[in-house]
From TrEMBL:
Residues 27-167 form the Thioredoxin domain. One of its GO terms (molecular function) is oxidoreductase activity. It comes from the Bacteria. This is Peroxiredoxin. Coiled coil: none annotated. InterPro entries: Redoxin, Thioredoxin-like_sf, Thioredoxin_domain, Thioredoxin_ResA/DsbE_sf. Gene3D superfamilies: Glutaredoxin (3.40.30.10).
Amino acid sequence: MKASRLLGPLLAVALLAGAGLLTYQSLGQRDKAPAISYVLLDGSKFDSAQWQGKVMLVNFWATSCTTCVAEMPEIVATHEKFKARGFDTLAVAMSYDPPAYVANFAASRKLPFGVAIDNTGAIAQKFGDIQLTPTTLLINKRGEIVKRYVGTPDFAALHGLVEKLLAEAG
């Protein structure tokens, strides 16, 4: 009789301990970047499988977003600083952005990285239903989302994190 009365509380403690362990373990886990396919302004087709082994910066933006336009020179500078070391950038224009505006912006600013137009909203949806611009994601060599920035990133801190991620094994 005594053993059965102890079994309930012991089972509860064991379940709580197990849940705590799972929570602790999941804290170190990162979300995988979704599998996406996209077409760049020049018509070339890519997919996120090609990001394997690279550190990727994915920037959701719009030509009508003044913050996006203001931060774009820093995005360009970040790309230029790290591109020779296994870093790449993808600028994803939001579905509501007129394609002609996006193409004109990319050409007039001579953006040195891939620019895709998310005309169906599918890319933003796969990355967690991104609505606010700018939203920038930093993805490590293993395809895990390391950091999500809503608004302009602290670029000095971002560069430090990119350095760290480039130094990691793939």
